């Protein structure tokens, strides 16, 4: 069986990155992440990320280059991050407790979901940190 691909979007504005605070499941609630979600069968990763960010944040994005390497989660999931550019819509945390813009200096101090920590060095570079 193929691994479930989960896509995440790194939305950078100037020298800040948008991060989202999880509402669920209980073991991840309160932790911060790059927003995104699961790719459904037959869907392109970029299309899934556009759909997920629209559903979760109410924004339209254009998906750019991959960020960092694949991050395996357990035995059946692979997490992939992409840089995204905001093209329309107003940010709203439809599926999260909160949204926040953070600088490179703040990245390490956030309580991240464990899988997303793999991208912190790359994110810091992108933010000029």
TrEMBL record:
Domain of life: Bacteria
InterPro entries xrefs: MutT-like, Nudix_hydrolase, NUDIX_hydrolase-like_dom_sf, NUDIX_hydrolase_CS, NUDIX_hydrolase_dom
Enzyme class: hydrolase
GO biological process, one term: DNA replication
Residue ranges annotated for the Nudix hydrolase domain, each copy included: 1-125
Cofactor: Mg(2+)
E.C. number: 3.6.1.55
Keywords: DNA damage, DNA repair, DNA replication, Hydrolase, Magnesium, Metal-binding, Mutator protein
GO MF term (any one): 8-oxo-GDP phosphatase activity
Catalysis: reaction(s): 8-oxo-dGTP + H2O = 8-oxo-dGMP + diphosphate + H(+)
Protein family: Belongs to the Nudix hydrolase family.
PANTHER family found in the cross-reference section: 8-OXO-DGTP DIPHOSPHATASE, NUDIX HYDROLASE FAMILY PROTEIN
Protein name: 8-oxo-dGTP diphosphatase
């Amino acid at each position: 069986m193929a691994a479930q691909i989960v896509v995440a979007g790194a939305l950078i504005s100037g020298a800040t990155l948008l991060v989202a605070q999880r509402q669920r499941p209980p073991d991840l609630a309160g932790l911060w992440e790059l927003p995104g979600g699961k790719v459904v069968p037959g869907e392109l990763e970029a299309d899934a990320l556009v759909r997920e960010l629209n559903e979760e944040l109410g924004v339209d994005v254009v998906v750019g280059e991959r960020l960092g390497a694949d991050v395996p989660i357990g035995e059946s999931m692979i997490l992939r991050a992409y840089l995204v550019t905001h093209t329309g819509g107003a940010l709203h945390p439809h599926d999260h407790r909160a949204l926040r813009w953070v600088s490179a200096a703040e990245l390490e101090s956030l309580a991240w979901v464990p899988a997303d920590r793999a991208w912190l060095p790359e994110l810091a570079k992108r933010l000029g940190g």
